């Protein structure tokens, strides 16, 4: 498996002369994609064109020059605008820098020939900018506009929560969201670089002329908000330019669109909104992406269709209108999840975009599925004192899984079985069974997390379960390998290595170190677990299950099955007024609910129920719809990267209507550790990827603190 996880981004994938950098690279590497350098503080440039590809993580680099290279291009590529963060200092002005697919945290230096950015985010914590020459940004997101330079051109980019006063810069088809916009005078408003370009403003505050402060425009519709802008300009004595085009006659600021309700989150345009309608009429789009979104509601109403709601299956989560929060202390290991109800994709049968907008304190370690930085196959080494529980009698053991080839002197066999009526995870040493983790099997816990986060001790040797067999745990630090410090309980864990103290605490944010040659030992606290980062999942993942169809039986009477989801389906899409009453609540058409022990329901109007799937779907345990699910995509949870909605198909064929699985039966989509290695051919053979298709979907959001181990 490719532990670097390079993505197949068109802008850099296949660059034969590029130099690669990864947090998991080596100091004495060749700089190739298969043997990248680790982070270097100084990168020396020559006079020729050069391309640099950075992996995920944050990089701080100083670029120096050995010779003049006036006009030569410098290409700097990341893995995605949410994945690679760059703080860069250039010492001279010889190259023409091109930056793509990264977050820019800080950038300073000189560039006479200009700087070009594509698909980048300018961080909200952005610290400095001193760049001569032109700035050209396409499909970028700006959280700051403290930008210097002779001129700036924003083409189809988005500005969020900024104060914009930089006059006369070209920003064609830009989207301003929650910004403060300063209109100093009538001359500014009538400048060709202002009035002639299409711009969109959503929920923005304007400070016009001598107004003492920036305030929101008033109105519910686009016309009302526009009129409020015009009235305020007129009150300042401004002449407001008008346009006649696309059916509008003498429309004031006719190439601008104003709205207060067209954006979901910070920057995604809502399908069918005022801004979307304005753009489509003109054959353009506003902001960083041409994609529009359909928001999934967060509602305290348990009957709301296509939503996360009060009745959603959840754990350690609180929900109110438009708000999902993680309960408990976020400074310690903590995790919760919530499932949506069943979402019908409206007949489109394809998932084009999935964006989880949130204001979680990511810098403090709290995020959506914050396990994104680490893969599931992590060696466990030293620093924990957890022995097998005492032997016990009465266990009924299933067929043992696989013996370890490294366990000595006696092989340890992992088994699953039953004890006291419960599923039991057990280890067998010789003829003695040891019990651990009652209620879990040997593959995953109740949340689908592999059980690779515990050590077993036998004859003073530590072992861990790698998903198929017991592996002898290493007890020394390897050079040029990244390690992360985790806590085995809810308390802070510490490790001292090479004279430096590291901690699992979110407050210190000093929990990662790299092994150095000649220093193999470390000193852990009793609750510390040290994890070498071997396989990296380079993005936050979201879990969903998506299927092409659901059983077609029209249910209008009888009893419902506990634990199954039911979808309220209109008899005709021309009449969606029907409802279903269940367990004291009335559900409209296109809504859904999870049946409990209450089996009775009432149909009201022209609608019926269709059974979807069991909340804890397991095809091997399915009794209701075995034949239906036999040869098609099944409602298993699958990890996806929201920026890449693709998957592998069985037999690598577009005609097969089920995703490819790994050796444990897990579907391989863009959030699976095998996806990019197979896609890019790291293992020798490239596998094609296909868009994620389906008609019915359910989403699971996992919110966790950094200290999830």
Number of strands: 56
**Major sheet details:** 16 strands, parallel
Low-pLDDT segments, ≥5 res? 370-395, 397-412, 435-454, 466-470
Total of helices: 6
Q: Name the structural class.
A: mainly beta
Mean pLDDT: 77
How would you describe the shape? globular
> In angstroms, what is the radius of gyration?
28 Å
How far apart are the first and last residues' alpha carbons, in Å?
23 Å
Helix content bin: under 10%
Per DSSP, what share of the residues sits in E-state strands of 2 or more residues?
Answer: 35-45%
Summarize the structure.
The protein contains six helices and 56 strands.
Characterization of the model:
With 709 residues, the chain is mainly beta. Helix content is 6%, strand content 35%. It has six helices and 56 strands. The two termini are 23 Å apart. The model is unreliable at 370-395, 397-412, 435-454 and 466-470 (pLDDT under 50).
Write the layout of secondary structure elements.
Elements: E1 19-26, E2 42-45, E3 50-54, E4 57-65, E5 73-77, E6 84-90, E7 96-108, E8 115-122, E9 129-130, E10 134-138, E11 141-142, E12 151-155, E13 158-160, E14 163-164, E15 174-177, E16 180-183, H1 186-189, H2 192-195, E17 199-202, E18 205-208, E19 215-216, H3 222-235, E20 242-245, E21 248-252, E22 256-259, E23 263-264, E24 268-269, H4 274-282, E25 297-299, E26 307-309, E27 314-315, E28 317-320, E29 323-326, E30 335-339, E31 343-344, E32 366-368, E33 396-397, E34 412-419, E35 422-429, E36 432-436, E37 456-458, E38 461-465, E39 470-472, E40 482-487, E41 494-497, E42 500-503, E43 512-514, E44 523-524, E45 528-532, E46 542-547, E47 564-570, E48 579-582, E49 585-588, E50 592-594, E51 601-604, E52 607-614, H5 626-629, E53 638-640, E54 646-647, H6 675-680, E55 690-691, E56 696-705
Parallel strand pairs: 1-3, 2-4, 3-5, 4-6, 5-7, 6-7, 7-8, 7-9, 8-10, 8-11, 10-12, 11-13, 13-15, 14-16, 15-17, 16-18, 17-22, 25-26
Antiparallel strand pairs: 18-19, 20-21, 23-24, 27-30, 28-29, 30-56, 31-56, 32-56, 33-34, 34-35, 35-36, 37-38, 38-39, 40-43, 40-45, 41-42, 41-44, 46-53, 46-56, 47-50, 47-52, 48-49, 48-51, 54-55
